[in-house]
Amino acid sequence: MEDEILLSKEMERHLKALGYRVVGRTGSGEEAVEIAKETKPDLVLMDIKLNDAMDGIEAARLIQRQVDTATVYLTGYSDRSDLFDRAKVTEPYAYLSKPISPLELVRTVETALYKHGMKRELRESRDLPDLVINALPVGVVYVNTDEVLQFVNKTYEGWCGLPDESVKGRSIEEVLGVDYRGTIRGKRSSGQPQQRGITMGELLRQR
């Protein structure tokens, strides 16, 4: 246990010297989850085995459910292979084997932060078109090449009274009553005025 504390302090010292802000340090999985919830770190260095009821893998899993953060596991040569099988599910950016050299620590941290930043930008760029389409004042649907609905924007949800999640995977004919080569005729709730939606051509149909 004393060796683990010394290792933790040494890593913190090296990271602070390079300008990183260390927002918390603990040997408890439950405390790690609480610290992450409060501080929302960009990266978590997690010992795959903790001297606690909750191991590092479970702690990392709970953190990732609540915080957009990168995970790097610290491991020992004696760690069991089944731990790595469980750890893979949390998609760590790297494993650092103890003892850890300062150079290895820095390179791993910088690489993990860079990759996670790129992943976040990619995710946000993919979300942007849906955000824009949801804000349009006209109804939009996406169908795949089998004419199965993949997406209904917020405007069309209001027109036909069907939330997006309830229509995914159902045929466009079943849900909307569609001639997709022209306009979309929604199955309206009683009292709703006739509305016209739009399709966005083959590009969206291939989504």
Q: What global shape is seen?
A: elongated
Order of strands across the widest beta sheet? 1-2-3
Average of the residue pLDDT scores: 77
SSE sequence, one letter per element: HHEHEHEHEEHHHEH
What level of helicity do the residues show? Answer: 40-55%
- From the N-terminal CA to the C-terminal CA, the straight-line distance is 53 Å
Output the structural class: alpha/beta
Q: Give the beta-strand count.
A: 6
Low-confidence stretches: 180-207
Topology:
Blueprint: H1 2-17, H2 29-39, E1 43-47, H3 56-66, E2 70-75, H4 81-87, E3 94-97, H5 102-135, E4 139-143, E5 149-152, H6 154-160, H7 164-167, H8 172-176, E6 197-198, H9 201-205
Parallel strand pairs: 1-2, 2-3, 4-6
Antiparallel strand pairs: 4-5
Helix pairs in contact: 2-3
Word description of this protein:
There is one protein chain. With 207 residues, this protein is of the alpha/beta class. The protein is built from 9 helices and 6 strands, in the order ααβαβαβαββαααβα. The protein has helices spanning 2-17, 29-39, 56-66, 81-87, 102-135, 154-160, 164-167, 172-176, 201-205; strands spanning 43-47, 70-75, 94-97, 139-143, 149-152, 197-198. A 3-stranded parallel sheet has the order 1-2-3, with helices on both faces. Strands 5-4-6 form a 3-stranded mixed sheet. Helix 2 (29-39) runs parallel beside helix 3. The radius of gyration is 24 Å and the shape is elongated.
